[in-house]
From TrEMBL, chain A:
Family: Belongs to the complex I subunit 2 family.
Cellular-component GO terms for this entry: endomembrane system; plasma membrane
Designated name of the protein: NADH-quinone oxidoreductase subunit N
Protein's gene: nuoN
Biological-process GO terms, alphabetical: ATP synthesis coupled electron transport
Catalytic activity from the UniProt record: a quinone + NADH + 5 H(+)(in) = a quinol + NAD(+) + 4 H(+)(out)
TrEMBL record, chain B:
GO CC terms in record: endomembrane system; membrane
Protein name: NADH dehydrogenase subunit M
Membrane topology: Multi-pass membrane protein
Keyword flag Transmembrane helix: yes
Phylogenetic placement of the source organism: Bacteria, Pseudomonadati, Bacteroidota, Cytophagia, Cytophagales
Species: Spirosoma endophyticum
Pfam families the UniProt entry points to: Proton_antipo_M (PF00361)
InterPro entries: NADH_Q_OxRdtase_chainM/4, NADH_UbQ_OxRdtase, ND/Mrp_TM
Keyword Transmembrane helix among record annotations: yes
Family statement drawn from the similarity comment of this UniProt entry: Belongs to the complex I subunit 4 family.
Boundaries of every NADH:quinone oxidoreductase/Mrp antiporter transmembrane domain copy: 124-415
Regions that span the bilayer: 6-21, 28-45, 65-92, 104-121, 127-147, 159-179, 208-229, 241-262, 274-293, 300-319, 331-349, 370-391, 403-423, 444-464
Keywords: Membrane, Transmembrane, Transmembrane helix
Gene Ontology MF annotations: NADH dehydrogenase (ubiquinone) activity; NADH dehydrogenase activity; ubiquinone binding
One BP annotation, GO: ATP synthesis coupled electron transport
Amino acid sequence: MLPIILLSVFGIGLLFLGFMKSRAVLLPAALFFLLVTLAVNFLDWNKNYLYFNDMMRTDNLSMVFTAIVLGSAFLVIALSGSFMESEEAQPAEYYALILFSLVGAVMMITFENLIMLFVGVEILSVAMYVLTGSDKRNLRSNEAALKYFLMGAFTTGIMLFGMALLYGATGSFTVAGIGAYAANPQAGLSLLLYVGFLMLLIGLLFKVSAAPFHFWTPDVYDGAPTVFTAFMSTVVKTAGFAALFRLLYVSFDGVYSFWWTILAIITAITLVIGNITAAYQNSFKRMMAYSSISHAGYLLIGLAALGAQTKQAIVFYSLAYSVATISAFGVLLLVAQQRSSQTLSRESTSAESFDSFNGLARQNPMLGFAMTVSMLSLAGIPLTAGFWGKFYMFSTAVERGQIWLLVVAVLMSAVGIYYYFRVIIAMYFRNGATEPIRVAPFYQYILLIATILTLGLGIAPGLLQGLF
Amino acid sequence: MLTLFLILFPVVAATLILIIRGERIKQLALVAALVELVLAGYVFWKFRPDTSSQFGFDYPWINSMGIRLSAGIDGISILLVLLTGLLVPFIVLSTFNRSYKQPATFYALMLYMQAALIGVFTARDGFLFYFFFEAALIPIYFLAAMWGGENRIPVTFKFFVYTIFGSLFMLLALVYLYYQTPATNVSAHSAAIVDLYKLKLTPGAQNWVFWAFFIAFAIKMPVFPFHTWQPDTYVESPTPATMLLAGIMLKMGVYGLIRFILPIVPLGVETWGKTAIVLAVIGIIYGAIIAIRQRDMKRLIAYSSFSHVGLMAAGVFSQTETGMQGALVQMLAHGINVVGLFFVADIIFSRTNTRQLDQLGGITQSTPKLTVYFMIMLLGSVALPLTNGFIGEFLLLHGVFTYNHYLGLAAGFTIIFGAVYMLRMFQKSMFGPTSSRTQSFADLTTSESWVFIPLVVMVFWIGIYPHTFLKVTEPAVANLMKYIGTTAVSMK
């Protein structure tokens, strides 16, 4: 509960700091605020509280998810420095919006009452619509914002309708209340429960960009400024999966036999569409958009095979995915910015293609290494966190005996290796621009932290265990 | 504890090399590899020939899931550990007359590779095995793709995706097996290989687990029809990487067959073993026939290696004690021979700038040393009695022949075909009139000779007194055979 209050206060504080002449204070201030929130988040450790008349629940799991979200935001903001230096950027507003959207994310993670879930989704989404369109002069950014807003508003409507139907069926808005009602499917459940549940599910699946509700993802991720793409593809996804997990695990475990096939089919479609389409992209950023769809698919495996292992699998996977994705986008941000200024082309798309990574590892071994590690992690190669993420996910499905789904996942992992390695090949084995990319020392430290985290979790995955 | 040291020492040495860099990197790498060789030799010396796992270590890794960092050396691992320790220093030494750009990275990757290989051969936990199995791929991929030939990027990429694809199925099978294991007092399941041995799977499960493992290992070895990555990768890789691939890495596949497939899914082997042997025998003959037609030396050796490994796979699947023993000894022997032959090809290429047989010839005139060493390596490879190849191939053929006479007969062609393509290569490159390219061919330098001398010693040692090596593996193999016999019966 404290994180929500603190983030709101800090967000307003950042807006006021924006009145100051110096922009330089904003970035450290935002990072400091996030660190404070992160520390305060753990005050309730090992306590299970219900806040605000059963509106929200904090437990260890929600605190870990909150920490992942805050940590991701920290990394994204830390890597945003060069983007904020441009004349047109308005860092105070951006940082404030990020903090506000984190309020929404935390509410999605800790909700006990469905109304809180709705409010959380809306707070997060509205902030994201604005941030997506923040590159005002760029046509693609505007298009992305409009597309995201229209489709997002539409699905939020569906979600709200689903909640209303659930209330009609169960007479309760709390996850525990719905769970108590749905726990005995033999007694004969109202049809409204199933319809409402599916509508709610569709709304959340839209947010985490699972197929067939993914159509907005490539355009929005591609059109938004890279910093906010990194934020969207990690924070929104983690929060969405935390919400999905809580709903499915607490409320709808009783009707598992009803929804697991639906979810498993969605998972398979998501995996296939995400991976196959990603393999055809020429723009790195667009590839990452499709790759984020495919990772939604891997995360869904754990939900479709909901069981004792799922919790751990989802936490580990979202952490591994977030860290790797942010560090990949961090490198892209630098590369795209400096390569486009080097070639003096105003067209930003060409700077985001695979070709702009050519020879990067030779000019900037550090950037090349950070990128390689995050690509290996996303591809799920051992020694990186991503491998254990996939391992845990596959374990959940094996425990439920969903072998056919795993075969799809395995085949698609092989496709994934193909497109992630295109970047590595470009960086190490192709010749490209000869000018090295300038990297600020602080930026390097942040990338180094992300890399060490990925490798550390890859070698000792047990570190995260016993935490929750 | 020695096993831990064997795995960690190359990692530490490689990291130091990356930090130090500088002029004397080659020497440093050589010293590190020699220290590892001494360790491996000491382990071999001290190894008690019985069925136990020795020099091991065992630490918790992912405690709540019962996955442990556990490795040790038993009769099946010992020769492969020795092979890994033995070959790497000479592979390093074979690069002394070459210069590779970014030498620190180059040698560090080789040592990382060595650590991962030792890990594969010693792991006692299924997931640790998988971990090293994949980890070995990353250094070799970079070695091949950064220092390889012109066409290296697509070729090594194919190699990488192909092998990862295979091992993902193995991961699936491992996770499945893991969930079949009963609870231990610490956790709900266990991934220790000995616990996997105790599983009694249904025949249906055995069949698909067999294929999941078999595809992974068959791609690695490679067995027909999963070999299409191999010739190109061997040719395009820089020679040291080819030596690592052919000398040690393909043994991971054969080792996997012995370690996982035979004891865990005996009924699967009963059902599908014959198919596997037939595929292997097809590979033997197919590889040999293609090798006869090759003009490029490196490609010829690549196909010969494909042919030879088919025989090892067939010997393992014959499920006889001689076949298994033969496979273990032949892995050692083949590693030595193939490294020697690739080195010859590399030496010839570095002096004439060609590997095409019809552009070579007449090299013997000025090179007594090279001729002798080349001949010895070649005779080992064609399995002449008193050389190492004879012992391995004889045992393997005996095993396959016991299993099925016709298949044994077909596999026996490997010796005849082997003699044909190997002697043809020797004749075309070494004898005949000198060509413009081979006119001023200089004989071996000292460092080059020192690569061959130990390999030649090993060729004769294994060929004349194989008992040294057979006796260490015998109890373990006998135990495994007994175990397979009893479990297969009890599962029916």
